[in-house]
Each structure stands twice: as structure tokens, then as C-alpha cells.
Batch of 2 targets.
Target 1
Amino acid sequence: MTEPARRAVAARAASPQALAVELAARDYIVDDALAMTVYLALRMQRPVFLEGAPGVGKTLLASVLADLFETRLIRLSCYEGLDLAQAAYEWNYQRQLLALQAHGRRVAAGGEPEVDDLYREAFLMRRPLLQAIDAAADRAPVLLIDEIDRADEEFESFLLELLGEFQITIPELGTLVARHRPIVVLTSNRTRDVHDALKRRCLYHWIDYPTLATELEIVRRKVPALADQLRRRVVAFVQRLRREDLSKLPGVAETVDWAEAISYVAGAALEPATVDATLGLLLKYHDDIERVRGPLAAQLLAESA
Amino acid sequence: MTARLGLGHDVVGFARALRAAGLPVGVSESESFAQALAWIDPLDRRAIYLAARATLVRRREDIAVFDELFAAFFGGPSPGRGQPAPVAPRHDPHPVARTALVSYMAERAEAGVRELDVPEHHKVASPNEQLQRKDFAECTPAELEAIARAMRELRLDLTLRRSRRLIRARRTGRLDLPRIVREAARRGGAVLALARRRPKLRRRPLVVLADISGSMELYARILLQFLHGVTQRHARTETFVFGTRLTRITGQLQIRRVDAALAHAAREIVDFAGGTRIGECLHAFDRLHARRVLGRGAVVLIISDGWDTGEPARLAAEMRRLAQRAHRIVWLNPLLGRAGYAPEVRGMAAALAHVDDFLPVHDLHSLHELAGRLARIPRRKGAVHPGRSGVPVASGLAAVGPREVSYPRAPSQSGRRGQP
């Protein structure tokens, strides 16, 4: 990247306001609190810890940031039992065993008894965390550590260390250090309280469901085909629906999907029958659909007029 | 940096105020805040607020308190979004009646009475047979003290669950290729032993929902003492009590001294007298806590006599939801200790379909049984305990049918029948 280009990209995060504008230009609407958190995270070189209900756009922020800074997005999806081998690096054991066998045959045929170095680059499989360190050679990548609450405590302590120094030590090869610190985004659905020490290293932000105005704007950008009047009904309905007692509240992605569906099937106005027919796009649990379909949906529709 | 902004004083003082209010703000957090201030416009109050929030707040629940304190410290109106501040139950304007239990515990705390040392004629570890099977509701305070002491020996070791993390194993488990190759490389290519690894076993979380409403009064105190012991010895125990409302008392029960723990818990609990609303309380649990505490194969203990003044349909629905999320639901009912009891009470009957184990909890012996049961929870969700026929002695249950019912082996000594 040329120097002027680099400066232009850096200028996108010159202030929280500038950042918010750049994110909005990529259809990711943030409030001033989130803009400030991301801005400070970039300046202070700390990870961002995003917590919130599923479907509010936590994971999306990382890809938008990668686009904004014209850099690579590296994604690590967490699960229980995630360990060093899957997260950072692993040796290609199968190849190594084959190499050992080949070596054995060579010795039998009178060749060198020395074992070729089994622990060299050719046998190393790089996983996301090591990829992030490698990619940082040229420019800071965005490292997304998704759903950290699904991982267990052992992984958290490993991550804590990594986020401090940003280096990984491979005993056979040496220590690899990141030249530029990656931009790190951690997300959590709060199915478990993540360890305090990890949170302390990050800047924390709770993402809530968007306000009416924000959600209207999001739908306007994602589903431009939807008429103004319909859009208002759609978003108002979902906002009202979120106040109901459901197993799983519809997220922003669901609103967008539903808006798109409505743009295809609805006439000039939103009818209860249409709502009933398309409820499956908003609600993903049978119980919820049964509860809402029919009189309740009609009532919510009327209330959100 | 902070001197230039003239805010140095305020940063430290503000952090201290937040700490006093219970927020986890330490030195490193204050430093972060100070650092952040260097990047923002020092005259922009909103920016200062946002920077403070980003660096000093680590939990969603703390935001409301933080907003209040920020307004107090830096002047101006509260910067929160105008959401209604969460009203602590203590400040609820409605007239509140405390249950007798809660009053008792609160009184006890104020009087500063220390636990009486009842002279024991036997060894502490083994109360006599009679005490083992004496219904808590019929015990004298002295006997309750003795039972409480005996309960301290009781361990509730839940069966472990297999996690996905793999650790070294000697003989069982799958092959551990990384180690095999590493050791072979060390020996010039010879594979001498097959290293193995197996899934790591972990503790299951234990979630207790205890009914402390009027009808459970006679049992509630001793059961809370029991739960205190459990919390002390079993990490990852979450305890909630309910009557007409749900209250989390996990933190309070972690206090080591029993009396202090129960006193603190009593201060938290505020309940309207008059009936139990199990369904609603389960709903509150589901909405506020379930996602966080029921992960990782949790075992849920519900301690209640099933007297529910709410809708049976509601209770059934909430139980179904709970059953989907928890690995095992164990319902402990002190009334099961009485001969002739059959769960015809509307609430109880509705909930039973979703209960895995239905057990009595009326005397010390039943607590031992509970411990034994928890140590043998089947790994598969919904499986019946090995070695039990599952056919209840009393009829009337077969129609309602939990998957498994256990009756005490000896009938209660008092001879009292049926429902109070």
C-alpha cells in the first residue's frame, strides 16, 4: 500500500465520528457508544469485547472493520475443548509418520540413519491465531474470536497470554512475533461469564437490539425495494414483538429477512394474514410461532400502526 | 496527561466511587481511563462519558449504576438513555410482607446470636438412627442443630460429564498422534508405545431453585443451611429462592459462616405473603439467568411442595422449557416423606412430566439418598436410573408419570396423613 493510501485509510478512524461515518457507509450503523469503544480500542491497541443477544451484529462488526481498513479478516470460531492445535498451529502428523516410514526404508536400504528434520515449515499447519501473527507482517489484520463463551477456561488463559504479547512460541521452531498488532474483536453470547482477567484486557461493550430509528435505517439500506410505509410497519412490528415473552427474540438479521419477504409478497398494506404466513422468518421456535400466530399477531400489528 | 486535562483528581476519585458502589474497578481500569482521555476532546462531556464507560464498565448490569455515579461526579443530567432505573425489590413501594422464615433469619442476624453448641453425647459424625429419619418439620431446635452439624459432612458429588477437551491417558482412549510422532522422532523413528488421550471429565454446574413460601416454612431454614454447605463444597453452584418472586442468593451463600450467609440472604429476599407462583418464578429464571447458568450439562434441583397458586398450564410450559435446557431435573418434595402422599396438587402434577427424578427431602436420610442419586446421574439426557424399576408404590402416579419416582423405605414415624 502506498503512503498516501495508508494515511487515507488511517484517517477513517481519526475520531469516533469519522469512524461512525465510515461504518455507516458500509451499512453498519453504530451508536456513539460503540463508535467510541471501537475508536479507543484502535488507539489504545486493545481488543474489543462485544457481548449481547444473538443476532445483533457482533460478528458483522469484524468483517466491516476488515473492509474499512482494507485488510484481511481472520476468524476463529470457538467451541468447548478448542485447544492450541486447532486455534494456533498443528504439526501434520500424518505426513510426519509417512516421512518416518520412508526414513525407515532408507535406513534398511543402507541410507543415512539421521532423521530428517520433522519439525520444519513444510510440516507446519497454520491455524487462525498463527495466521493472524503471520498476516501482521505487512499490515494489521482483523482477528475475530467468535463466541468465546463457548470455549473453556483453559483456552481463555492461553488467549489471555496471547493477547498480551501477540507472540506464539513453537518449541521446535522458535518464537514468532506479530510485527503489527492485529485488531482483535471478541464476541460472546453470554451463555457463560467469561473470565474477568480476559475482559479486563479488552474494552467492553454490550450491544443491545437497535432503536426504532436505527433499525429503520438498517432496513432501508438492506432492503431498498421496500416501500416507506411498509417499512415503518415492519420495523415497528418487530420492535413491538421483542417485548413479548418468547424463547428467542428476533434479531436484526431476522428483521431484514422478513422485510425482504414482505417486499415480495405484501401488497400496499401489511395484513395479519401475511404476517401469519411469514412468521417463520422472524421466529425460529415452534412454540414462539404458535404463541404469536393469529390473534396475538393481529393485536401486535394493530399496536404498532 | 491527566494533569493537562485537570481531571487527574477526578479519575481516581471517580474510580473509587465506582468501587464503593460495587463495580469491579481496579488500578488498571483507572489507568485505561486515563489513557483513553488522551485520545478524546477534553471539553466534550459526552465523549468523556463514553470513554469512561468503555474502559471502566465490564458488565451490562453495571451500566445503570455507572450512569448515576457519572452524573453525580461530573455534573449534569444522567447520561443514560432514559431507561427506568432498575428498582431493587427493597425499594418497591408496595406494602411488603416478609415470610416468617425471612423475618426469623433477619431477627437472628440482628440479635447477633451465635450458633448454640448443643452438647453431643455421641460422636459428631454419626447422629443416631432416630435423627436420621426424623422429619424436619417435627424436630426441636436442638435436634435441628444436631442435624445441621451432621449435614456438614454430606458431600454432593455430581457425576462428571465428558467435555471435548482431551488429556493424556494411560490405557483408555483414542490414539494421541502428536505425542506418538514426537516420541518416535526422539528415538530415530521407532514407535515404541502408543500414547493415548481421553476426554477430560468436568463437574456439572448445579442449579438449585428453592421454594421458601409459607407452606415450605418448616423445611426452608434447614434446607438453606444444607444449600449453604453444598455451595461451600461444590464449585459452580447457583442458588435461587422463590415464593412469589425469584431471588438469586448464590453470592450470599458463598459467605463462609452459616449465620452470616443466611442473614445476608434474608436481606435480599423480599416476598409477598400469600401463595407461591412457581410458574412465574421459573419464567423469571428463564429470562434472566437460564442462559448463563444452564450451559455445560447443568443439573437442576427444584425444592418445593408444588403448591402453586398460578396456572398449571404455565408451570407445565416453563418446566418443559427448563427440561430442554438442563441435563437433568430433580424435584425434591418434602411431602413425599408422608405416607399416602400422591401429587394431586395441581401444580405438582403438571410439572412432573418433565421431571427426571422425584425425591423426598424431609429428613437427613433423604439427603443422603439425594447425594447417592446425584452421584449416579446417567450420562444420557432423560435416561432412567440404572437398577430401579421405576414403578411407584402408590397408584395415581402412574397416570402422571415422571420417569422415576422414589419413596422412602420406612414410613414417617408421626403417622400424619396426606396434605396439611
Target 2
Amino acid sequence: MSSFAIEVTSLSKSYGPVRALDDISFSTGRGELFGFIGPDGAGKTTLFRILTTLLIADAGEARVEGLDVVHDYKKIRRMIGYMPGRFSLYPDLTVEENLRFFATIFGTTIEENYDLIRDIYVQIEPFKHRRAGKLSGGMKQKLALSCALIHKPVVLFLDEPTTGVDAVSRREFWEMLQRLKAGGISILVSTPYMDEASLCDRVALIQNGSLMAISTPAEVVEKYPLGLFSVSSSNVYQLLHDLKAFQPASGAFAFGQTIHLSFTPGSLKEEEVNAFLTDKGHTNISVNRIKPTIEDCFMELMGSEVAKSEYQHITTKERP
Amino acid sequence: MTMPENIIIVKDLVKKFGNFTANDHLTFEVKKGEIFGFLGANGAGKTTAIRILCGLSYPTSGILTVAGYDIYSQRELIKKNIGYMSQKFSLYEDLTVFENIRFYAGIYGLSKKEIEERSERLLERLDLQTARNKLIADIPLGWKQKLALSVAIIHDPKIVFLDEPTGGVDPITRRQFWDMIFETARNGITVFVTTHYMDEAEYCDRVSIMVDGRIAALDTPANLKEQFHVASMNDVFLRLARSKVTTEE
């Protein structure tokens, strides 16, 4: 038996001229919480659909719990739970009916696996006679997760479970994932929110169908090749404008109330930034060396490739 | 010094659906030319309020003027003077870039000559000339979002409503989009924006946070952080919204 929950080798998938997945390889361990971090259109959903046996790749191989996604698809389907990005439950069935339906088709009952979903389901149980289509976004998400768990899957696939979800509910959702992980379930989760990366054991940063990095969040941060200052002054907009034109730096990006200024290590001192900004008329200047966030790392990896790759993504399809 | 004029005035806005109160006596003003962040947890009542401000739904009670027009009797004038864009609905996927521009400009009643001029200027500014005849379905999300904002303000509205405009967008494009928002505001168009990214809340001139149908806080990001003794808008949001999640519905 394989020691991996998921093994992917040289996987590619195109839709016409668009390369959704471009020669992707990675593996995740048993009981690991593995995150795919990247924007919409990066290829996350295509990958999830291949791994959940709903789509066939053009090239490459993928295994879930040692089973091939093409040949052993029936076995895989019994072992996995899948929460798609788009709400996919029956809107005309009630909360309880949806859950019972999913339990039944997997040959089990709500009662048998209630322990697994209790934490999540108790929050929506007061509304169990309400139709799923009438639930709020946060409630739908909890019901979808309950339905994906009711047959006690070995591997759980969650495709953008927190997209469009507010900051408080997002935090609670991740607390739930940590509890599931503690229960031994292998989890593959995707998200466009960079700040969620630090909550995963390991992450893959994905952009335009390619993996830019695969490692622990701490390693992603360690591998950041540049120096980084957090800079603030009384006028943030002018500050961003001035720092973007500051030649010695490699990049300037807004992060809330401060600007993150990146530079070749050793090439720039706090005092030089300070002097430059004083000269530009800024007041209350503060320049501090900081550790990068995953978002800094993601942007650095995207780097100057952004414009180029976006052009490549523009297809040749034109109106006659 | 003259006070900036209020472009949106909301007094005691109440909206009920059956016995559920989605908006519970909202009172606030939006100043002309500011970037106003409209935050709140899912289900707090933001969408309901935005639909009313855009003239798409009547309030149960309250006094509201948008762009100087009355929400009950001058809805068509309001619609002519506002722009709207969301992540979910912005452009027609099976029309080309240029067809989308022409379509929206036409709907807003621009003349043929104006449409010609403005679309050329817009394509040039967004560096989209080469993509002019591409289908929207075939261009990257980041480009779509920038184009969608440009199209939403092609008729020079007084206010533009942006409903989660940066959801799912990559971090570089997200920042470029905010550059466009700043430019829009500098050009005198008031920006009314919702977002789940709390760093974006920091970019707003003022922010309101809705909890359970009410406005729980409204001030500049700096004042809100001071008021709650926290370092970031994320913490302000968590303070206000966290205790309320279990009472949702």
C-alpha cells in the first residue's frame, strides 16, 4: 500500500488552446492538510476534478490512496469526500434530507457516523427542516462539508470552501479542518486567500496551471530571495507612488496601511529609504525590516512573468 | 472651508422580508469623492442595502437620497447616475471586449461618437488594444475585472458600487485593481465598495461594519483601530463580528 494519500506525476490538461494544468507533479502524505494556493483560473478546480475521478487528464498519472484515478475510479469514489466550489446539494431537499441522501447512497446512516460531523452539524441542526436552497452562505458551506464527510472518507477534497466567506467564518472553518485532520483524515484544500496558507502543513502555490513552489509555509517564506522592509508615512498613497519609482528597490506593494518594499539582499539600508522619503517630503516615516508573508512570496514568484503569461493565456480565438 | 457634499444620505433605512429584518434602522452618509468601505459578515444585510441604494428594491421605510435623487420617486435618474460592478456579474462572456464596451455605453445612452472615442481611450489605457476582438470568456480574470470597472464608469457616473470586485483575483492584479479605484476616486467618482479582504479595508477613506442588519461601527480605519485598541482592520472586524456568528439567522 502506498504511503501517500495523493500522488500526481506529470499531469496535464488543456481545454482547447488553454493549458489548465501544465505538467504538474506532487504528492501528499497520509493525514496531511495540504493546500493549493492560487487565484481563480490557476487550474485548482481542474486538478480537483481529475483527482475525484470526474475528469480525465490529457497526460500524466494520478493516484489516490494508491489507486489509479482512471482504472480504479469506482473504488476511489467510495473512499473520498468532495466539496466542490459551487454549491452542489439539492436545493429542494431539506438540510436533513440532503444529509440522509448522501449517507444512503454510500450505504451508511447519519447515526453511524454522527461523531464525525457533530461539531459542524450541530450548528445547522436547528434548521434541519429548512430547504437547502434557503440557507445562508455560511450554512450551505457547513451542510456541504457535513455531506462530504457522512460516509467517513479517507481523503477529503475541498475546492475553495472559503471563497466569498467573511473573515470570521473563514477562521472558524479552518478550526474545523484542524479538528478533522486530528481525526486522521487526509485533506486537500484549495483557496485564493494567501493568508490561509500558513494554516496548512504544506502548500503548493499555483498560477496559470503551473506549480511555482511546493513546501511547508515556513520554507516558502525562508526561500524568499529578497530583503523586505515594511514602510509607512503620513501619506500612504504618495508613499506607494514614490516607492514604486525608487530605483534601488525591486518592488513596492501595498499591504494595508504599510508598503512592502523588496530589494536585493544587502543592497539597501533603512537609512537610505528614510533619506529618500525625507527628501520627497514625507513625514512620520518608519522603515522596518520584516519577514515576508506568503503573499509577498507569491507575488515574487509571479514576478515579471505575470504580463507575459497573461498574454499566453489569451487564445487566438477571434470573432469572424 | 466647505464641507464635502453628501452624495448618499440614508436615514432610518428599514427593510423587512416577512418577519425578518434585513436592514434595521441604518443611518449613514457617504461623502462626495470618498472611497467608502461597506463591510460585514455574510448575511449581515449588505446586499439588501446595496440593492436599495441602486434603485433595485424599495425599502420598507426610511429616507434615502442617492446622487441627489429620491430613492422612491427618482429611481430611473439614480440608475443613470450610478455604475455597478460585482465579481459575479460584470461582462458578457460570449461578447468580445469591444462589444461589451459598446453594449454598456449604448445602454447608458452615450452617442455613437462618444462610444467610439471612449472605447478607444479605454482600450488604450488598459493596454487592451490587442485583445479588442477577443471573447471575454478567453481573457484572464484580472483583465476582466479591470475592464469591468472601466465599463461600469464609462458614462461618468457620480457613484460606482463595487460588490466584492477582487474576490479570487491574484495578489498583483488585486493591487492593480485598487490603483484603479484610487484613480476613479481622484477623478471625482465616489466609490462604494465591499470586500472580504481586510487589508483592502485599510485603503478606504471610511469604513462601516454591519452586524445583524445594523451598522455596528463607522469611521476612518485609523479611528476604528484606535477605538478598539487593535493594530489592524482585521482585528476590528473580528471583534465586532465574532460574537455574532452563532446568532446568524
